[in-house]
Known about the structure:
Blueprint: H1 3-22, H2 25-44, H3 52-114, H4 117-127, H5 133-140, H6 144-164, H7 171-181
Helix pairs in contact: 1-2, 1-3, 2-3, 4-6, 5-6, 6-7
Amino acid sequence: MSFEQLYRQLFPDLHRYAFTILEDHEWSTDVVQDAFVKYYKQLEGGKEIAYDKAYLYRIVYNTAVSQLRKKATEDRYMAFAAQEGAVQMNAEEQRIEAERNVDMGLIIDKVLELLPEQCRLVFLQSRAGGKKYREIAVAMGLSVKTVEAHMSKALKIIQEFIRVNRDKLSLIQIVMIYELFC
């Protein structure tokens, strides 16, 4: 049997075998192709191989296991490096996070100051207090429609604040404002 015939006949089975080990099609294809290259080099070197199929399966197995070990070592190193980097960056990240929280606190205060008093009270009871419109209406002596109107007005004012200050706010701040208020 010629090398090409052997390749065409065994490649699909070897690929499936490699895939059971590696669980990745591209990686399995590479391993099988490497196995055939090694096999071909052995033949060119004059080595006589009695059981071609068994020999190729053994090459695929050894190559796949070797690559899995190499990947596991790389993954452990990357995890270690990431952990070390996280420890080193932790203090800096904490400082940045603290600044971001102060900035967000100032932005939230600024947004809430824009709301008229009654509107702000309704809005805070709804968003911060988690109350339903009906509960707010009863607690404040308002109609549900008035509470809805205050909420609508508050959201329009907040959206306008974001639109006007879009250039001054980071994308993260805009997203956080939307998550908090809208």
